[in-house]
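Quick one:
INPUT:
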């Protein structure tokens, strides 16, 4: 192993908490952009003369470009320096945000979102890897609580911010807002984030190609399936995507040098379970906003801001409970914490799905969102902390890359699946409104049509509801953490927290 920065130099300069908050700003921004488009969907449909499926691709393209490289960018951070790869990604993301806001066609917006996703993929694994390396294991739960809570809050703040900006300044500002935030985030990260020791790595470019091709074929086939009437070539894409991903896993097992995904990471049961749990959460976050926002604006006649404010109770609970959950994460069995989280989230999402009706009251929706918010607060941060707690430091980047890749894979599949489900239910209940209809762009005046549209959105909401069931089953397999400090045991001194390896 070679190092461009000595451990002693790194330790001298490390101030963990200021570095964490600098990283969280950029991380928050890129996660907001996962969901900020959902509330602007009807406006973009109208302004850019786009279909529902095309606007869903605005998010799916971002998620795909985010998910595919994130496996290799974690390793690149280990090799060339997490700080510098983070700064490079932040620059790409910020410039791509300007491009998104300046586009005048839906096709160019999708292309700009791909570039934006590439920037995000460079940033995310670096944030998690740096946290893993600068905080000692016994205190990592509190740091990951901030990181994980940021993810949870960003997923619901995105639509709220998107609604305010779309109403007040225009849909373009959901992207322009990233420019000043990106510049501030760059300055803070440059000043506060330490340049940690680097590690030699070989790069599995065949693995990158196989994972990228497989994910694209699978996501494209799922999302375009209904629109293309499940033509044989669509089925072939889906089957081909699964086959290529299977080849990817086989190659990872046989690669004797340094595979893109070290399958040995999954020998840690908690890492494996956490990856299932976070892929579920990625799928939920990418899917539930579309039917909810379309229902609110098309059936209730809400403005983008009013529709987005339906998510406010969920965001508040994530913020209020962040500190409590962070303290519990270091001391309580993850099976108990996440089991409660997924159970509560399921109850709240099921309530929400059943409430999507023209006669639903705001207070009823608010209660359901509070329950979902409570549940989510007990999932995001503990999952992140539990996933990486036992990993050797030299695999911090690889572990962070895998973890964030699985979250993004869940987002890609969730986004594609909700597009298919909404189109299918609209086609069955309101023929002609599934893809190119105007039902999502303005209020529906006819009571019968509004009722059927609500039913389609309600049935679509069963997808994220079912995903919470998968997450609940998965977290039952957590084992007790092994780190010092768990269950009240004394924690070791954090003197060597910045060293390249604890093992």
């Amino acid at each position: 192993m070679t190092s461009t920065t000595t451990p002693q130099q790194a330790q001298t300069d490390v101030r963990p908490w200021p570095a964490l908050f600098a990283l969280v700003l950029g991380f928050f921004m890129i996660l907001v952009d996962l969901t900020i488009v959902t509330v602007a969907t009807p406006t973009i449909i109208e302004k850019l003369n786009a279909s529902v499926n095309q606007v869903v691709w605005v998010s799916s393209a971002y998620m795909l470009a985010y998910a595919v490289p994130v496996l290799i960018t974690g390793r690149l951070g280990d090799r060339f320096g997490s700080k510098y790869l983070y700064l490079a990604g932040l620059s790409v993301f910020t410039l791509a945000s300007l491009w998104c806001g300046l586009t005048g066609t839906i096709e160019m917006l999708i292309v700009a979102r791909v570039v934006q996703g590439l920037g995000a993929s460079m940033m995310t694994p670096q944030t998690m890897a740096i946290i893993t390396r600068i905080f000692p294991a016994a205190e990592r739960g509190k740091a990951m609580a901030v990181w994980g809570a940021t993810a949870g809050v960003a997923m619901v703040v995105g639509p709220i911010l998107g609604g305010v900006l779309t109403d007040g300044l225009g849909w373009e500002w959901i992207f322009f807002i990233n420019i000043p935030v990106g510049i501030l985030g760059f300055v803070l990260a440059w000043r506060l984030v330490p340049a940690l020791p680097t590690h030699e790595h070989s790069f599995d470019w065949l693995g990158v190609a196989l994972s990228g091709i497989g994910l694209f074929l699978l996501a494209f086939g799922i999302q375009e399936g209904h629109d293309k009437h499940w033509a044989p070539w669509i089925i072939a894409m889906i089957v081909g995507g699964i086959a290529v991903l299977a080849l990817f896993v086989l190659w990872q097992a046989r690669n004797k040098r340094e595979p893109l995904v070290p399958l040995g990471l999954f020998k840690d049961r908690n890492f494996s379970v956490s990856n299932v749990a976070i892929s579920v959460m990625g799928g939920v976050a990418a899917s539930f906003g579309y039917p909810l926002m379309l229902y609110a604006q098309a059936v209730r006649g809400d403005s983008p801001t009013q529709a987005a404010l339906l998510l406010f109770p969920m965001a508040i609970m994530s913020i209020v409970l962040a500190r409590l959950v962070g303290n519990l994460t270091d001391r309580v069995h993850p099976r108990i914490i996440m089991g409660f989280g997924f159970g509560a989230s399921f109850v709240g999402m099921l309530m929400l799905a059943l409430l999507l009706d023209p006669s639903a009251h705001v207070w009823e929706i608010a209660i359901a969102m509070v329950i979902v918010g409570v549940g989510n607060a007990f999932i995001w941060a503990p999952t992140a902390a539990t996933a990486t707690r036992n990993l050797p430091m030299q695999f911090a980047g690889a572990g962070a890359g895998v973890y964030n890749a699985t979250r993004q894979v869940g987002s890609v599949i969730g986004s594609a699946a909700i597009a298919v489900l909404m189109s299918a239910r609209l086609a069955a209940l309101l023929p002609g409104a599934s893809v190119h209809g105007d039902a999502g762009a303005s209020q529906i005046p006819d009571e019968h049509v509004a009722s059927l549209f609500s039913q389609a959105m309600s049935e679509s909401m069963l997808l994220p509801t079912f995903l919470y069931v998968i997450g609940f089953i998965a977290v039952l397999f957590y084992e007790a953490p092994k780190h010092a400090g768990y269950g009240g045991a004394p924690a070791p001194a954090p003197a060597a927290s910045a060293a390249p390896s604890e093992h």
